[in-house]
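Page 47, continued from p. 46.
Same chain as before, 441 aa.
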Amino acid sequence: MATPSFTELNERLGFVLDPDTGERIGAGHLKIAPASITLDLPVDAGVLKALKLDSFPFSPQTPKRLVFSDRHGMVALGGCNIRTYNLGGATGWTRLFVDYAAEIENESQDYWSVTGLRSEVAGLPRWTGLSSVQTSSTKNDMGLISGITVSAQSGEAIHVGSQFGLSLYPYFSLNGSFENGEHILTEKVFVQTSVKDPIPWDHHLDVHQAIQDLLTIAYWRPCEMNISLVSNNKYPLTMPRSDEPLGELWRPAKSVRGGRAPGGARAVLPSGVFPLFDLDKLGVGNLLRWITEHRQWMRVIGPLVSSKYQRGTVEVKLIQTAISIEAIGYLIALRQGEITEGKSLSFPKYLKLIRQTLDCSIDPVLAGSPDNGIPKFKNYDEWADAFNYVYKQSKHADHELPDGVRASILRDSGALLVRLWLAREFGVDRDTLDLNAQYER
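Result:
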């Protein structure tokens, strides 16, 4: 039987160690799920003391770093926090929620800060155009396929730059049961950050989330993210029975702090989904600008993008879209000198400013949904009045709730308006947007 990999070991029983002393704290049950990493421990007096739960009132300041060990190996656990515990009787139990986990060789290895981090984001291969696999076929005299040739070779990474060494890295792997005639070729494109000296995971993850946010705006779909691998150049890949370094050693990892939503086994989008724009149309230089300015744009990006990862009523999602619209309008008003910092204009005025500064076609924004009884809007002013009205209906208690279908159509068209404006702001050409926006509905 093959040894299960780190990603296949979803539930494990073992021991919990203090990484600073190597001392055993107690037994533990580690569970790694797509949306959470948890560590359950039965507790006695010794465990209580180690977890700083041995005084009253309880101050659950557990060590942020722990090591889990079982017969499969060791796992570094970071960002550990106690949220649930029951200490009644002679023994009790506690549950720790963990931000990230990485496979390690021994408890002395420090993977709580890393020099490299790789993630997968759904939609990234199509968006970048990177591929490691080429196929060709041969045909016989009758025109029927008689052979297929598949070749795989990792292509050149796209180096974007930034202080975190961002690159987009194509990769492939070959697995399967070869003796049984099973060959599984998998290709991926990683988002990779790489720095000289180890830094906390969160600094890497901010860059990876910026890529996830950009792809969500491009596809207008939830683009799930998987944190896949980490490296620390203090522990390089070495020659067998030698300390001579050969290169970076990437270790399997998992984080629930990375991105808007963690992915499952593979972060993929449904087939037939196309982006409003791709990397070729955006350009590497503009991608670097997006990464560099990402935090500055969070008042626009945050509400809009997070709405694709949340369960909520259409009213809530429409309000989130309106917040993004207002943030863009405010920025335009500042740029044009119509207001100063701390001042504001009305929401309808912000809508007008966006239209005045958007130089691509807005016909898809005005399209309505005739199949759902929402006719095409005659002009932008009519659409803006309709959006503003359902926005008022959504946020004010003295208004009736909006019609759900109408609100949903206006919410999506408002989101498209924001996406078009952002795309033009970051350098996507008009012709691309005029063509691709037609297929947004």
